[in-house]
Every structure is written in C-alpha cells, then in structure tokens.
Design brief:
Blueprint (H helix, E strand, L loop, with lengths): L12 E4 L2 E8 L13 H17 L8 E8 L5 H8 L9 E6 L8 E8 L6
Parallel strand pairs: 3-4
Antiparallel strand pairs: 1-2, 2-5, 3-5
Length: 122
C-alpha cells in the first residue's frame, strides 16, 4: 500500500457562502498518510472519519451534508459500501452519485461532500 505525498495542490475544504465543499477523502491515516488497510470497511470508516474531522472545523457534522459523490474502484463493492454508508446518514438522505473508476494510492473508495452551514429544511 502506498501513502500520499505530504503536500498536494488543493485544500481539504473550501467555503462559499454557507456551503462547505470537502475535497475527495480516502481511507488514509491523517497522521501517516498511509492507506489504513486493504478492506472496504477499513477504508470507508476512515474516509468518513476524515470527512467528519474536516466538517467539525466548521462545527458541522453529517446532518449538514446535502450532496455526496462516491468513487468506488469496483462495481462489486456497491452493496457492501451501502451497508457501511448507512451507518453515517439517516433520512432524509443527502443527494448522492456513485462512480466506478481507478483510484490513486490503491484506494477502494474516495468520497467528497457538500455541506450547508445552516441545517434548515427544504
């Protein structure tokens, strides 16, 4: 398993108005930059924890997330991923897109989100 270089040319998140855009996160240990393990569960849990840590910098959590983009390395991971993902979100669920593609650093999953500062209803 590989690790991410220390400096990459992007921010972990950016804010426009009340919207927080979180860059794609993977199952990387935030201290070492190494992939946390070979399983989808290990990588997804760490990915979600990484996203939560970024959201918390703006006093947000998963209830503020309105859009999720998911990138899976293989279509066969979809069912297992949904079981893990369901631990983090409740109805009404955020809008979501899932794409299958090749990912950097031997990752099985990468996720980016858009969150809103206010938690008003639609």
């Amino acid at each position: 398993m590989s690790s991410v270089p220390k400096v990459l040319p992007f921010s972990s998140s950016s804010r426009i108005g009340d919207s927080i855009f979180v860059s794609g996160q993977g199952g990387l240990d935030p201290q070492t930059g190494a992939v946390v393990g070979p399983t989808l569960e290990e990588q997804t849990v760490q990915t979600m924890e990484n996203i939560l840590a970024i959201l918390r910098k703006d006093n947000l959590d998963f209830c503020h997330v309105k859009k999720v983009n998911i990138y899976l390395s293989r279509r066969e991971l979809y069912k297992e991923f949904n079981e893990i993902y369901a631990r983090y979100f409740t109805a009404p669920y955020p809008a979501r897109t899932t794409v299958y593609c090749d990912l950097n650093y031997d990752l099985l999953v990468e996720i980016d989100v858009v969150a809103e500062m206010s938690n008003g209803t639609m």
